[in-house]
Write a structure and sequence with these properties.
The chain is an alpha+beta fold and 303 residues long. The chain is built from nine helices and eleven strands. Among the domains are: 71 residues, D-Maltodextrin-Binding Protein, domain 2; 64 residues, no CATH class; 43 residues, no CATH class. The strands form five sheets. It has a three-stranded antiparallel β-sheet, with no helix packed on it. It has a two-stranded parallel sheet with strand order 1-2.
Length: 303
């Protein structure tokens, strides 16, 4: 073979080998891509998840989670509907007995240990941690999940059974007694609330008045010194009627660094001094009963 012919042959062989290598490389790449395992689909049934209620806190959190985890499918739990059933707990327990209970279940804290003892719930130790020093709850140092540090101490204790966590709170409730300072002032001469139960009962007794009927038959309703309502939201109209607000939004003008409070229903707040639009500023929500109002021409406060 002549030298030019030999050169052409070697050139062809090199190109041919390169083509084979390229084909092998591409083939391996495609093969590897085909063999790449897909993420397994995870299906969960969640109690208190209401897809038709987008504004519900549970629904909002679940939708946000699913948007970044495409392999997770969340379905709402639909408990059994029985005529005359005693309540949701009854049908929920029947779901456990029938093996169709939700993967995530909402329970009251006082039920936590009972559900665990009955074998209905599993510990969250893998995700949260364990009480290693035996003090009854999982401290910040023992926790794996950073969100655990934001949970109040007494709630951590309620969530922990035998050193292991069996739940996390979805909300906090506050028990409180509210009082009208003008009525307390009527009895004690001061605005200060009672400091002992004896003082409390004494004020309630003195404030209590029986209904009376005038000589002409007019009924004058009496007054209750103390009222207990199982639905605490019903006291809100009392607060509103006195000019108070249960919650306000606080927005800070980034230019002046001044903070302004607005009623919760205001959706287009403006700086009262400069007129600047503050609607795009992220609000901070403040629970307050301290809004001022006027009584007999004098400024009062619910604080």
């Amino acid at each position: 073979m002549s030298e030019p012919a030999m050169g052409a042959f070697l050139h062809f062989r090199v190109i041919n080998i390169l083509q084979i290598v390229c084909l092998l490389t591409v083939g391996c790449s495609v093969f590897a891509e085909e063999k790449k395992p897909k993420e397994a689909v995870i299906e969960l049934t969640v109690d208190n998840y209401i897809p038709d209620w987008p504004g519900h806190p549970v629904t909002e959190n679940i939708n946000q989670f699913v948007s970044s985890h495409s392999n997770v499918v969340i379905r709402p739990f639909s408990n059994l509907k029985l005529p005359g059933a005693a309540g949701s707990d009854t049908t929920k327990l029947m779901a456990f007995a029938g093996g169709i209970a939700p993967d995530l279940v909402k329970i009251w804290w006082h039920e936590n240990e009972t559900y665990m003892r009955q074998g209905f719930t599993m510990p969250l130790t893998e995700f949260i941690g364990r009480d290693e020093d035996g003090d009854g709850y999982i401290s910040d140092q023992e926790a794996k999940w950073e969100g655990w540090s934001k949970i109040p101490h007494n709630i951590r204790v309620a969530a922990t059974v035998d050193g292991q966590p069996y739940g996390i709170p979805t909300g906090l409730a506050i028990t409180a007694i509210i009082y009208r300072r003008d009525l307390v002032r009527e009895i004690t001469g001061k605005d200060d609330p009672p400091r002992t139960w004896d003082d409390f009962f004494l004020i309630c007794q003195k404030l209590t008045e029986k209904s009376k009927r005038d000589a002409d038959g007019t009924l004058r309703k009496g007054r209750k010194g103390f009222y207990v309502d199982m639905e605490p939201f019903r006291w809100l109209p009392w607060l509103w009627s006195a000019g108070g607000q249960e919650m306000v939004q606080v927005r800070i003008n980034p230019q002046t660094k001044k903070a302004y409070e607005f009623p919760k229903e205001v959706f287009n707040p403006k700086d009262p001094e400069t007129g600047e639009d503050l609607s795009k500023i992220k609000p901070e929500w403040k629970a307050t009963f301290a809004s001022e109002f006027e009584v007999d021409g004098k400024k009062e406060s619910n604080e």
